[in-house]
Structure prediction request, 308 residues.
Amino acid sequence: MSFSPGPLGLRSIQDQRERWERQRGRTGRELVQTEQLYCQQLELLNTYFVELLKAKGTLRQDVRESIFSSIKSILSVNQSLLVHLENDYFGRGFDQFCPQLHHYNTYVDNIYDASKVLKIQLKKNKAFRRFKKLQEARPEFSNQTLEELLQLPVHRIHQYEHFLQDMTTNTSPDNPEFQQLSRAVAAVCEVSQHIHNNARRHENHLQLCRVQKLLKGRKTKVLAAGRWYIREGWLKTVPPKGAEAKPKMFFLFSDMLLQAKRCSPLHPTNGDKFEGQHAYPLQDGNVEKVFGHTRSRGGLLSVSISAA
Prediction:
């Protein structure tokens, strides 16, 4: 037995297809407009910074490459993508664009080092500092700084993720472009996740460095491969002999619980620092609630560490 949709069912299907087409059209127009602006911005960055710095010799080649990384390659592949998008070849355009995403991976892997090198040059190189200020004052940049311009490829990947997901959702599965757009979503989401992972690792590194600077001397090593910062705060420790509980600062990491005490505020150089007292390896530890609340209103925890 087989069924075929009646007139109302056919009308409903047709209405859905028309809604898809309208939404896809709006997304497509916005994608093209933002891609045009993005390519213009990249071209300005390349012309007024990369090429002019090369011509003037204000920065050494290795320094230029450290700051601008693969920006010229990104400009080239995006100019090719734009030609396809302006001619409504969205699937074909991204099919050819996605194999070139390694230029974006190279760029985002270098972004934090680029920021560091840029800060060093601005501090030490007076000619570059003056050059940067003059270029940023150009009306073409609309008050954007070089630091903001260098973030454009990172932001664009997140925009692609949104646009492609929207276009795929509003493209019929029997449309020849559906598979091409679906592959593009997967490829762009992979780069977006790569950016997110890099940002998490960078933020974690900054937290580890911050905690290391809070500690007096070099006895306690916080910076370690594979270690993740989780949280920190004051807790009162109860001595084994039942004396008065004393406040201690604790730093919790993925593999270690660090107990520290504040240095004397009268110390000439370490008055705002902590002294590490005990580092408890979590792999050999166990935490149990003795009584009360452990989240916000106070309680008692027992931390036991197995002897090595």
Summary: The CA atoms of residues 99 and 195 lie 17 Å apart.
